[in-house]
Design a protein that fits this description.
The chain has about 290 residues and is mainly β. The chain has one domain: Beta-galactosidase, Chain A, domain 5 (Distorted Sandwich). It is about 10% helix and about 40% strand. The chain contains five helices and 18 strands. Strands 1-6-7-8-9-18-15-14-11-12 form a ten-stranded antiparallel sheet. Strands 2, 3, 4, 5, 10, 13, 16 and 17 form an eight-stranded antiparallel sheet that branches. It starts with a helix and ends with a helix.
């Protein structure tokens, strides 16, 4: 059976949701025949199960927020966070594909085709502005809860940072575990840590402590409790990397303010791999190298 035909329209999806998106009629790369990861939707949570993630899976607040520029020192509720609603357009009966659609308060429409593979999940995201005004959305954040994966007790306080030492980013091409040094501590909201690429203004990121370090790659990840596996996240283009306050890590993607009639594509991946930082970096370069050029 063709993959497009396997996508089942979700109950309650609007009649106009599926036909006008080529994400359904042309959904992209085929799913791996031996895929071990699967997808579930529970409210606003995307749950990835299987492999090293086990049956409890990895929970992602997808998406937690779409954000305006000028966010670093601004009030999160009054200024930064934009209202949006999400609908499930279609879902593969086997849990391998999921099509979500977000509609933002300024009219921007963002389609997410999420596909599970053997050792990663691919996010193909297309943002289209059907209005006559430039969209205010500059970036968006999936909040990835890594507490269970890193062995953080389920009853731990949300500000418990024992998981922090299992997390990592890349500085000057080398894997560095958190906390990186220096470690910023001052911001409108604390604790946490934000890293930005050099081409993103320092005024346009999460209002948590902003590190003076610039990651060499748009990768952030963590090691499993038993040290046998790693989980890593990456988007292109990316706005920031963020260690949060809910046993979470973020690789937040960039929208950049989309003009009327414009469509942009953003690609993301969540990797579940053996605990080998060099192999992860090679995989990242293979998957994202051409998009960065």
């Amino acid at each position: 059976m063709a993959l497009a035909a396997m996508l089942v329209p979700a109950a309650g999806a609007t009649a106009a949701a599926a036909p006008d998106s080529d994400l359904v009629t042309n959904p992209g790369p085929a799913v791996d025949a031996g895929a071990t990861l699967t997808l579930e939707r529970d409210g606003n949570w995307l749950i990835i199960k299987g492999g090293a993630l086990g049956e409890d899976g990895l929970r992602i607040n997808y998406l937690e927020a779409y954000c305006r520029a000028g966010s670093t020192a601004a009030d999160w509720v009054e200024h930064t966070r934009m209202r949006h609603r999400t609908e499930t357009v279609a879902a593969d009966e086997d849990g391998r594909r999921l099509h979500l659609r977000d509609t933002l308060e300024d009219g921007l429409v963002v389609d997410h085709m999420i596909t599970a593979h053997a050792d990663h999940v691919l996010f193909t995201t297309r943002a289209h502005n059907p209005t006559d005004r430039r969209s205010e959305a500059h970036w968006a954040q999936p909040c990835v809860r890594v507490g269970p994966f890193t062995g953080t007790p389920s009853d731990a306080d949300l500000e418990d940072e024992r998981y922090l030492h299992r997390c990592f980013i890349f500085i000057d091409g080398e894997l560095q575990r958190l906390p990186t040094q220096p470690w910023a501590t001052e911001a409108r909201y604390t604790p946490g840590q934000v890293w930005r690429p050099q081409d993103v203004p320092e005024d346009d990121v999460n209002p948590r402590p902003l590190s003076p370090l610039h990651p060499s790659h748009g990768l952030i990840g963590c090691f499993s409790a038993d040290g046998e596996h790693l989980l890593a996240l990456a988007w292109e283009p990316w706005q920031e990397l963020f260690q949060g306050v809910a046993h979470c890590i973020h690789a937040d993607f960039r929208l950049g303010g989309i003009e009327p009639g414009e469509t942009r594509e953003i690609i993301g991946r969540a990797y579940v791999l053996p605990a080998d930082g060099e192999a992860l970096l090679a995989r990242y370069e293979e998957d994202f190298g051409k998009r960065k050029d």
